[in-house]
Amino acid sequence: MLSLGLASAAYSSSSDLAQPTVPTERLSSSPDIWLTKGFLSPAEVKHLRTKVPADEAAYAPCIGQVDEFESKRCAFVPVAGDPLAEALVARLGEAWRVDTSRLVAAGLPLIRYLPGAPPVGKHGDEDRHGVVPNATLVLYLTGSDPAHPAGQTIFPEAGVAVSPTPGAVLSFSNLDASGAPHPNGRHLVSAVPREASRAADAERAHPVSQLSLSLSHLSALSGCRCRESTP
């Protein structure tokens, strides 16, 4: 995932960042994992999809994942000057109690998984400086065919698997009560089968597209990357 590298100015429990102030569903308490369905309206999802770059030249390897460029690519969805996108970013800031001003200037970091993308191995999230953010948000712009689950975010130790649903936001804590990386927070992303992509092509231009943001106390929302690590 892609990060702007904003680190927390001071550590405190990350659970208050992962949990939004809007109605949500708690999927796990170790770590705190929340799924907020319908945070983005269908109109907002549709609008953001139109802003997803169509030019492949706009995409670059996700930070630290050059070898995966053939199947996983990163870009930014522009926000500044777009009233609907700016309003959405403001709502994110209100719901997760963080400053989102940098997202307006930099854009929303996009992850795009192409047809045939292999699984992303189990990893913990870090910013580009190797700092573990308090929490991560994943905003889903696309879904997957129930008959061919694709791009699921899976937390093996927590027993949680989340399938992409357009408009939903997955948020989770990366740190435990001591401020160390949570042992159950490591997660993976399931493969994107080619047959799943073909089944969905009529409904969306990009097989699995999501916006991924990291949250740190006393800082702005930023992009987030993931780095695979050993157990």
Automatic annotation (TrEMBL):
Name the UniProt record assigns to this protein: Prolyl 4-hydroxylase alpha subunit domain-containing protein
- The lineage's top-level taxon is Eukaryota
Q: Please name the source species.
A: Emiliania huxleyi (Coccolithophore)
